[in-house]
Amino acid sequence: MSINLEKRVKNVKIQLEKIQFGENIQVAVALDISGSMSSTFQNGTVQDLVERLLAIGINLDRNQKIEVFPFNGNAYTTAPATRRTLENYVEERILDRLSIGGGTKYAPVMQEISNRFKMEHVTRTVEVKQKKRFLSSIFGTKEVEEQKETYTTGDPLVVFFITDGANSDRDQTEALIKKLSNRPVFWQFIGINSPWGGFPFLEKLDDLHGRYIDNANFFNAGDIASIDDNDLYKRILNEMPQWYKKAKELGVIK
């Protein structure tokens, strides 16, 4: 393990202690590889960011790893980042296998992550109540079925969603965020190096109406390489415990 990674693991642990959070959480990273991200890959920012996020995975994930899902207009899979695979991870696991280019869509990679972590697998249980009709017991009873949904999955999941913005599938993305709002998954969107000067859509997702539970947060990191580790970890870990607590209260997390 590199000296930098070891230091970052300790920094994450300190931040988790400050926010009093120590649960087991699976960690995934959705990583934008559209054409506008090319310079961010070339200058080493993405490799460094993977290390910074792996430090979170080492603290939260039982297997001390992060699953990485590159995306542009399509979604891709690659090997997880671990202590063993971290060195030259971006070059060997992404750049040597995939092309940095194309447009940007969020929904395909969100669906891929949902499928991988079995967020769509539902077990339905039925509770039957007996109710007497109002006029007379002559008419007997009727059964009222109330369906309750239980989602079978492993530990809850947090997804660090790295993008420079400008996706072309906003309606589909909003629909998925709403659909997955009663699943044990939290979406932490991190906007970096926007060529367009802002992230209005991601800001909208942060306050999106029509969700069962607030399952997304947005942080505009700008030039993320200029943000020190302590500030980065504070910003991107701040809202997750609030989501976790609410999800436990509502039975989203078992």
General description of the model:
There is one protein chain. The strands form two sheets. The protein has a five-stranded parallel beta sheet, with helices on both faces. It has a two-stranded antiparallel sheet with strand order 3-4. It has helices spanning 3-18, 38-42, 45-60, 89-95, 107-116, 170-179, 200-206, 229-237, 240-249, and strands at residues 26-32, 67-71, 122-132, 141-151, 157-163, 185-192, 216-222. With 254 residues, the chain is α/β, with parallel strands linked by helices.
Can you give keywords for this protein?
alpha/beta; 254 residues; two-stranded antiparallel sheet
**Could you give a short account of the major beta sheet?**
5 strands, parallel
| End-to-end gap | 34 Å
**Strand coverage percent:** 15-25%
Class computed from helices, strands and strand pairing: alpha/beta
